[in-house]
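Predict the 3D structure for this chain.
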Amino acid sequence: MDYRKLGNSGLLVSELCLGTQTFGGVGAWQTFGRQDQSEADRLVAQAFDAGINFFDTAEAYSDGTAEILLGKALGSRRGDAVIATKISGRFGPGLNDVGLSRKRVVAAVDASLTRLGTDYIDLYQLHSPDAVTPLEETLRALDDLVRAGKIRYVGCSNYPAWEVMKGIAISERDQVARFASLQAYYSLVGRDVERETLSLLLDQQLALLVWSPLAGGLLTDKFAGGPGPPTARRSKIDFPPVDKAHATRCVTAAQGIARQHHATVARIALAWLLHQEAVTSVVIGATTSEQLADNLKSVDVRLTAGELQCLDQISALPSWYPGWILDLASHEALSLDEARGRRAR
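Done. Predicted structure below.
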């Protein structure tokens, strides 16, 4: 297991992060998993034993139950763990139980601290943008919580590139806590973040934390031969959305590479992400110890340059604007430099 800096901070996190969306199984969250306390204890211990120190949860997961189970599972090892949680959209029936207002953020942090059984949260993330509350208000509230010692770092999730950059600009202008990370969907069959977001993260030195790296289970051997078993999560909820024909081509290519490594499709899909420059940590979830054990083995897969090129080409995004014009401009600039070099000689 390798460890990487969380953005431009000094905090080190494992390249794999254990997600807890499967913990609890309350209400609609049963689709994702139904791990009780004993199962959560076992998965967390297994993750620790493999070198994982990074654990991701959210107040929304099973209506807060996932936070409770994670906190108890960590127990005396809390100091060795980096806990990331998130404030969601609506969390309660009240008029102000929604959004990212100062009132809501302060109350949500206190509630998460209680459920987690800890006095600080390592990484507190905004689960999605709030179109009503000014971003200045949210960031100032988060900065106050950092100064109070209740949270250590702040991040966001599912934010478009322009809004991440807006948040960074506000933080620098007002001298308040700055985003350290973005948690976003990224997979072999879903590379949309490459259009603009990855360049922003690299330029501004933000960590990329990847959710749903297996595209909701699609990038597993379960779906390598067709529609997959009806009991699989992807068969119950078609999320995240993908181009099925494109996904089939990607899975087929991953199958061939998996055979060369005596590995599963899932391991190859995770390994591909771990080879991407912008990726800091990949959030993996598991409903069984066997699934977790297989995912953990992805850190040992070293893809060759040829294998990476094969996966890159088969899963490439369609040409887009202004991407193609930027590629053209870059090529013309290189050609001009070459011409200047020839004249200089």
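The chain has two domains: 3-314, 317-345.
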